[in-house]
């Protein structure tokens, strides 16, 4: 008896995915990319893939790299400059220390040795123009240093914060271990004294003790061998007391204080 053969299903075993009119693939189906003839697919492991930045990122990276390079150059320049300044300061400090140890410099000493007073009329109500002929004693105590007493100095006489007269010292060179005495005229013009100041001056003159303040500002230069320093300012403040306000006045007490400004 012949076997009955059933006809095969006319539909294929795997029909291609249906698509709608817009060309979309039906949901739930998967497509596999098949390379076209003449092309090859090369598979490379992920850890061997090198990524290149896009052109925009590449430009930004180059700009940042150049900026960092310029910044590092500026930092190096600043470090070199500060290093040179530090070396220079250390060298100057060592030189100054050596010079000080070799020469042992001392500031010049000024003092008031005598004073003569003129035109000090306390009975008139008009302004006064007092004159002080001050004898100054300048001493250079250094063994190896000469001193140039420069122009631009000043000498001022005060009584109770009232400036009475002023003048200048003469400029000269003073050798080592030298004492120079010279007279300096100090003049005032139209000084108005109040009644209280006049009364105090009269009372102190009757007691034989009239106090004054004499301020000296003297710029000097120091010469050590062939080297001459910059200008140094010596300031002297002397409290002196005289017995009378005449040309025959005498100093009965004095106290002078010194200070030096190097710059």
Description:
With 263 residues, the protein is of the alpha+beta class. Helix content is 24%, strand content 35%. The strands form two sheets. Strands 3, 4, 5, 6, 8, 9 and 10 form a seven-stranded antiparallel β-sheet that branches. It is elongated and about 135 Å long. The N and C termini lie far apart (138 Å). The model is unreliable at 1-30 (pLDDT under 50).
* Strand/helix succession: HEEEEEEEHEEE
Shape: elongated
Q: Please mark out the parts with pLDDT under 50 across 5 or more consecutive residues, or reply none.
A: 1-30
What is the overall pLDDT average?
81
| Helix content estimate | 10-25%
Class per helix and strand makeup: alpha+beta
Strand content: 25-35%
From the N-terminal CA to the C-terminal CA, the straight-line distance is 138 Å
Total number of helical segments? Answer: 2
Beta strands, count: 10
The major β-sheet equals: 7 strands, antiparallel
Structural Rg: 50 Å
Write a brief structural summary.
The protein has 263 residues and is an alpha+beta fold. The chain contains two helices and ten strands; from the N terminus they run αβββββββαβββ.
SSE layout and pairings?
Blueprint: H1 55-103, E1 109-118, E2 131-140, E3 145-149, E4 154-159, E5 162-167, E6 172-174, E7 178-187, H2 195-207, E8 210-224, E9 227-242, E10 251-261
């Amino acid at each position: 008896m012949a076997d009955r053969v059933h006809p095969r299903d006319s539909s294929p075993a795997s029909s291609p995915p249906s698509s709608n009119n817009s060309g979309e693939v039906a949901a739930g189906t998967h497509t596999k990319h098949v390379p076209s003839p003449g092309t090859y697919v090369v598979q490379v492991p992920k850890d061997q893939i090198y990524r290149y930045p896009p052109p925009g990122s590449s430009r930004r990276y180059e700009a940042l790299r150049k900026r960092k390079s310029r910044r590092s150059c500026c930092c190096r320049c600043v470090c070199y400059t500060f290093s040179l300044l530090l070396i220079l300061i250390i060298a100057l400090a060592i030189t100054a220390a050596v010079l000080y140890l070799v020469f042992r410099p001392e500031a010049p000493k000024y003092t008031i040795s005598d004073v003569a007073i003129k035109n000090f009329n306390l009975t008139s109500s008009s302004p006064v123009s007092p004159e002080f002929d001050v004898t100054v004693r300048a001493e250079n105590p250094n063994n190896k240093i000469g001193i140039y007493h420069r122009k631009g100095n000043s000498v001022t006489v005060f009584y109770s914060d009232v400036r009475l007269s002023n003048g200048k010292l003469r400029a000269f060179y003073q050798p080592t271990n030298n004492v120079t005495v010279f007279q300096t005229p100090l003049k005032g013009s139209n000084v108005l004294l109040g009644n209280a100041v006049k009364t105090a001056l009269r009372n102190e003159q009757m007691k034989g003790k009239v106090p004054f303040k004499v301020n000296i500002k003297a710029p000097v230069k120091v010469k050590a061998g062939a080297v001459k320093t910059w200008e140094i300012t010596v300031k002297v403040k002397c409290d002196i007391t005289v017995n009378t306000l005449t040309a025959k006045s005498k100093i009965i007490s004095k106290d002078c204080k010194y200070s030096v400004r190097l710059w």
